[in-house]
Amino acid sequence: MAEGxxxxxxxxxxxEFTGSGAEYFRVWVVNLLFSLLxxxxxxxxxxxxxxxxxxxxxxxxxxxxxxxARPEAILKGRIVAVLAFAAYALxxxxxxxxxxxxxxxxAIAAPWVIVRSLIFNAxxxxxxxLRFHFNGTPGEAARVFLGLLAVxxxxxxxxYPWFVARSKRFVLEHHALGSSRFGCELSxxxxxxxxLRALLMQIGLLLPAGALAFLGVxxxxxxxxxxxxxxxLPALAVYAVYAVxxxxxxxxxxxxxxxxxxxxxxxxxxxIEAKKLIRIYFGNIVAVIFSAGxxxxxxxxxxxxxxxxxxxxxxxxxxxxxxxPGFARVGATGQELGDFFNLDLGL
Amino acid sequence: xxxxxxRYFDSQRSIGHDVSVILGSGALKLVGRDIDLHFxxxxxxxAPRVADAxxxxxxxxxxxxxxxxxxxxxxxxxxxxxxxxxxxxxSRPAYAALALALVVAALWVLIDRGxxxxxxxxxxxxxxxxxxVLGRETLAALDRYxxxxxxxxxxxxxxxxARFHLMAEAARDLPxxxxxxxxxxxxxxxxxxxPAGTIVITDQLVAxxxxxxxxxxxxxxxxxxxxxxxxxxxLLQGSATALIIAxxxxxxxxxxxxxxxxxxxxxxxxxxxxxxxxADRYGIGLLRxxxxxxxxxxxxxxxxxxxxxxxxxxxxxxFLASHPSTEExxxxxxxxxxx
Lengths: 347, 339
Fold this sequence. Notes:
The complex is a heterodimer.
Chain A: E1 2-3, E2 11-13, E3 16-17, H1 21-37, H2 43-56, E4 58-60, E5 63-67, H3 71-94, H4 98-123, E6 125-127, E7 130-134, H5 138-154, H6 160-173, E8 175-177, E9 180-181, E10 183-184, H7 188-219, H8 227-259, E11 261-263, E12 266-270, H9 274-290, H10 296-309, E13 311-315, E14 319-320, H11 333-340
Antiparallel strand pairs in A: 1-14, 2-13, 3-4, 4-5, 5-6, 6-7, 7-8, 8-9, 10-11, 11-12, 12-13
Chain B: E1 2-9, E2 17-23, E3 27-32, E4 35-40, E5 45-46, E6 55-58, E7 64-67, H1 70-76, H2 81-91, H3 93-125, H4 132-145, E8 148-149, H5 154-170, E9 178-183, E10 191-194, E11 198-202, H6 203-208, H7 212-227, H8 230-249, H9 254-260, H10 262-289, H11 295-311, H12 326-338
Parallel strand pairs in B: 9-11
Antiparallel strand pairs in B: 1-2, 1-7, 2-3, 3-4, 5-6, 6-7, 8-9, 10-11
Helix pairs in contact in B: 2-3, 3-8, 5-7, 7-10, 7-11, 8-10, 10-12, 11-12
């Protein structure tokens, strides 16, 4: 990369989202309608359109991001993913033992799916006319995602924080803007402390939540018509505790990850407050349930706005990033398989 | 000729240039400090408009421009008819409301009619033998944890089996089926159709019934599940609704999508009630053909309801229930009896 005039002091850039939930709702609902009317075929075009809106409305240092994947590539990937899902769902139900074969195949394919999905998304995203890149390999992905998951299983979950730290680092440090590679240094003990706190928090919350639910059930025991609540109350309490701990972990892992990340002449900083994120998640859950899903776009924009507002890019010096001359086109099958089977890479 | 303000990026360096875009006859010019570029406007691609997000113009050679004034770009670059139509729909709240109503209607048609009809068509084309492994394993699992061998005298079982097969012969085109007897104080009086046409009846149900006709009425209902391939249809509909829900709720984080998956449970319950109604109708038809009074079905339902109330107090609300209400089902049987 070429260095521009070196600035005397740091400059902090804050990404901002300049779109609105109402506008995104209109885009979302119209594209959903076309997707339904075409029995899902249009959903590939809808996905590009929605992402184009979200990326276009995200600005950093005054300039917006762009997403330009070819819908045809996404459609092809989606068809493969739907077929794989249908085969898994039907054959897996009819011949329960075949599930082991499916899981084995999924484990073998997972590193490839993860890497392809990250490459496809990165190469079809750009900022200031420069494409992003992802240059991790399936071999490394296998070491992190399969190797460390195996270690996690063998240690009965004790190694899980280590796995989280390594997988976040894998995703971040292989990304690049043009030829400027990002780096990521994470302190593994910090992840262990975080998960320990989350575990204590979960235990601490489950006790009173369980007691409250029990009290509720006990108070209702004589009302036969309310016996549904006897199931619903404890389930709700557990779900609420789960949401709190989930929000806490999301906020803290994002902070740890971004605060450990850097690029040429820049570093990231993230200050997500767990309390605020949990409040946003609870608002989303209630809104999505009571609107029968209609407020999903509102929830998406609200969460994105908050998360972006907590992220900062600190420029230690003004660096001009340059394009990476060598890149090849990548299909979307990996990404669509990953999306379908809910591979959450959580950036 | 018109001039628009834009940010130009050359795709090689992360530097934005403020430029003026000048669109003349057949040519597009970019003019700014140290920038003077000419392009053939036929080789320039204007990205479709998405609400009011910045508009991208992709230039030959990899460069791109971002423009903020969407309306001005629209005036210059005539978009395709579908793109203009799409943008018009997305830009007005009234159209969004209309789209919303249509989405709800389309979802309803898809879930209420489309999925069940498609599942039925597909299920009828899949040979029942594909269910045999699942049927064997389900029965084995039930035998391991829930059921014991029947304690009914062999004579009684043989007599019931004979009457069952006689009744089944009255129906034409039934897929393969067989009747097995089990004892299960834990399950109580019940009968159910497993995959591959295995019908299980508990000793407790035989004891509860006051006549063989009542037992046969329940078995006729279970044969309805077998005839209509409900096991296969349940599998197909489950996958199809999972696909639809995943498509609709696509872009949200996983806690919220857990909330969005609540409708799946309600849908499963609704489909289950639809199957029960279909099996009820089939069962009553079969009873008539086999000259067994359909009233027996109403009688045994009443007894089953009483037994269930005695076992666990309370119940679940209608929209969560896997079966239609007993009143509704008895009414159907009574109505059939008067015909």
